Amino acid sequence: MLSLLLAAGTAFSQVVWRYGADMDSGWGDGGSVYTPYVEFPAVFAAPYAGCQLTHIRIGLKAQATNVYVYVKQAAHDAQPIYRQKIGTLEAGWNDIVLDTPYELTGEGLAIGYKASFTAAGGIGISKEKYSDGDIVYYNSQNRWTSTGGSIALQAVVEGDALPQNELMMARLQNMTAAFEADSVTFRGTVRNVGGNSVESYSLAYSLDGGETQMLDVACQLDVNATDSFAVNVPAMVAGQHLLRVWVALVNGQADAYSANNEATATLTVKDPAFQRRVVCEEFTGTWCGWCPRGMVGLELMKEQHPVMFIPVSIHGSGNDPLEIDAQLPYTYQPFIASMAGAPSCLVDRKLSGDPFYDIQNLYTMEQAADAAAAVSTTAQWQADGSALDVHTEYHTAADVAQADYNLAFVLTEDSLTGYSQANYYSGGGNGELYGWEKKGNPTQDFVYQDVARGIFPSFEGEQVHSGRLEGGDMQAYDYVLTLPATIADRAQLKVTALLIDRHTGYIVNACRTQPSVYSETGVRVVRRVSGEQPRSYSLSGQRITNGRQGLCVEVMADGRVRKTIRP
């Protein structure tokens, strides 16, 4: 839909058409001839059929000679339908009365002037860019060009047939709903291009052709003034949806001209399965006196982003009781060797920085783009409690010609205590740090979270796919994760599946899960809800109804989880 600004005119008899807000600067070479045009398409001109174009106002920044004004149906037409010789015009605004008023038929038209400039920068322009208001023929070089703004030219329209209650709708912007959003707000504008002041108007809107909703607006909208509105719609199922908004009433009456009173926009609702979970692998150590700030940084991020932020604290570099033995296949030694110092971190194995000062920005950068693949994972204890059966599924939304993926599984443990932590913030000499200044150096007054106990089968993971992957084609992978001897409490374990791009080494997406609680008797501890029907979820974790087709997950009344395919 056309984006136009209209200058104030005299109600009931005169309206001024224009682009841009005013004449801000000048444009053009000295010693040159130009013919600048503005075009007013039919969607704008149609309501004024039966009126007359009576004046043309030209804004100049320098004197122009040999001036002619033109009216055409389109700027690129060879011949004008109206031509008038003017002569010399001075810098400033020049009001030209047409010898013969031009009768408007409702068709689109182009209005321009030809002029010779001795000085540079003679063509007056507005800094606001409108493509229809910025069409220039450079006569001296026999080519078309543009100024980058809008030509300072106004057209005065007069007549008894001016539309009275007439609003023009501007274009709505397409919107994409945030993953967690329940609704989306579209914003738009209407312009009073009729002869009456507007005290109220009503907008109608519908989503995907559904039930029509109404929005009533009280205002004081003078002739040619602009008003803003907001339409709130629910974030629906994943996919694209069409919003249609149109002017229903102006001052309680039907809009005078319906062809320019409607706008449409697309609402994109993204599949939550493809929301990027951001993995932060942090290098830390009990020996590191600056590392408390990394521990604080990760805890703050977990509070702000409890689902989408996945921290992994990797201890190493010497005599650290929480370090994974470098000789074991599931060591994090390749990661430790790549880090320049502690505390430091890698986000999705792509972005590096400080886990306190930089982590929010790194997270925001990664969250800005959807993940290339969706990942889900579950972990169940084997009967003797020595290992976990990890089941992981992944898929892409669209076809991928070369999907070369590895999977790695990080085992972390929470609530570890009794270790001596170096603390350079003790006493406050290095500033305050969320209470660490009140702890000793070293201190045992700390509970460690998200401590890496191993990455299986290795830091790089194991190849699970190579070559073409069809969009929506679910891939499954099972892995038996044998518990290291260092585990203190099975109830505090979590497993994170990392889908890794084998070529870049970057983490494509991830999913963290907590196994069901394991008791010493070898029985899973579950909470039974008497008489409860199975609860069904999509692989993205959304609750669905029994009528939903495809692969889903059911949580049974006894706590058991099973995957099922519904026909």
Give the topology.
Elements lengths: L4 E3 L6 E5 L6 E3 L4 E9 L1 H4 L6 E9 L3 E9 L9 E8 L2 E12 L5 E9 L5 E4 L8 E4 L4 E3 L4 E2 L1 E6 L8 E3 L5 E3 L5 E10 L5 E10 L5 E9 L4 E9 L4 E12 L2 E2 L7 E8 L8 E7 L7 H13 L4 E7 L17 H6 L5 E4 L3 E3 L5 H9 L6 E8 L5 E9 L9 E9 L37 E6 L5 E4 L9 E8 L10 E9 L5 E7 L21 E3 L5 E2 L5 E6 L5 E6 L1
Parallel strand pairs: 16-23, 24-25
Antiparallel strand pairs: 1-2, 2-14, 3-10, 4-9, 4-11, 5-8, 5-14, 6-7, 6-9, 10-13, 11-12, 15-17, 17-20, 18-19, 18-21, 21-22, 21-23, 24-26, 26-27, 28-29, 29-33, 30-31, 30-32, 30-34, 34-35, 36-37, 36-38, 38-39
Structural description of this entry:
The chain is mostly beta strands and 567 residues long. The protein folds into four domains: 5-158, Jelly Rolls (Sandwich), CATH 2.60.120; 167-270, Immunoglobulin-like (Sandwich); 274-374 and 407-464 and 492-513, Glutaredoxin, CATH 3.40.30.10; 535-566, no CATH class. It is 6% helix and 44% strand. The chain has four helices and 39 strands. The protein is elongated, with a radius of gyration of 34 Å. It starts with a strand and ends with a strand. Residues 1-12 and 522-567 have low confidence and may be disordered.
Give the CA-CA distance, first to last residue: 44 Å
Can you tell me the CATH topology of the largest domain? Glutaredoxin
Highest-level CATH class of the largest domain? Alpha Beta
CATH homology-level superfamily of the largest domain: Glutaredoxin
Unreliable residue stretches: 1-12, 522-567
What's the count of strands?
39
Structural class of the secondary elements? mainly beta
Subunit organisation of the chains = single chain
Main β-sheet, spatial strand arrangement: 7-6-9-4-11-12
- Give the overall silhouette: elongated
The biggest sheet amounts to:
6 strands, antiparallel
Average pLDDT works out at 88
Strand content: 35-45%
Number of helices: 4
Percent helix: under 10%
What's the number of structural domains?
4
Radius of gyration: 34 Å
